[in-house]
């Protein structure tokens, strides 16, 4: 199942309502939608973004300046 890129353009972070970036694995498959402001990654399972704060993982990297 593929992820519709038009859907990504409509989705926002459920925490801060900010923009999300698509994260891909080594094989260029979509894995997460990332909110850089909150340092959260929302998983994509079977082509469906899981936009629940309780399902998001925290990113360990420091925020970009």
Provide a descriptive summary of the structure in words.
By secondary structure, this protein is mainly beta. It has a single domain (5-58), classed as Single Sheet (N-terminal domain of TfIIb), CATH 2.20.25.10. Helix content is 9%, strand content 31%. Strands 1, 2, 3, 4 and 5 form a five-stranded antiparallel sheet that branches. The longest helix is centred in the N-terminal third of the chain and has 6 residues, at 5-10. The protein is globular. The termini are far apart. The relative contact order is 0.23. The mean pLDDT is 88. One of its GO terms (cellular component) is cytosol. This is UPF0434 protein RGE_32010. InterPro entries: Trm112-like. In the N-terminal section; belongs to the LpxK family. In the C-terminal section; belongs to the UPF0434 family. Pfam families: Trm112p.
Can you summarize this structure?
One of its GO terms (cellular component) is cytosol. Helix content is 9%, strand content 31%.
Taken together, the total number of domains comes to 1
Percent in helix = under 10%
- According to CATH, the fold-level topology is N-terminal domain of TfIIb
- What would CATH call the class? Mainly Beta
Rg over alpha carbons: 11 Å
Give me the secondary-structure category.
mainly beta
What average pLDDT do the residues reach?
A: 88
Number of strands: 5
The proportion of strand residues reads 25-35%
Order of helices and strands: HEEEEE
Determine the N-to-C terminus distance: 35 Å
Q: Biggest sheet, in brief? A: 5 strands, antiparallel
- SS field, number of helical segments: 1
Which spans of ≥5 residues are poorly predicted at pLDDT below 50? none
Protein name: UPF0434 protein RGE_32010
Family: In the N-terminal section; belongs to the LpxK family. In the C-terminal section; belongs to the UPF0434 family.
């Amino acid at each position: 199942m593929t992820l519709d890129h038009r859907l990504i353009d409509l989705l926002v972070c459920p925490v801060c309502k900010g923009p999300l970036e698509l994260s891909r694995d080594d094989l260029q498959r979509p894995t997460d939608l990332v909110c850089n402001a909150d340092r959260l990654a929302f998983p994509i399972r079977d082509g469906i973004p899981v936009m629940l704060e309780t399902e998001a993982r925290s990113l360990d990297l420091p925020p970009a300046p």
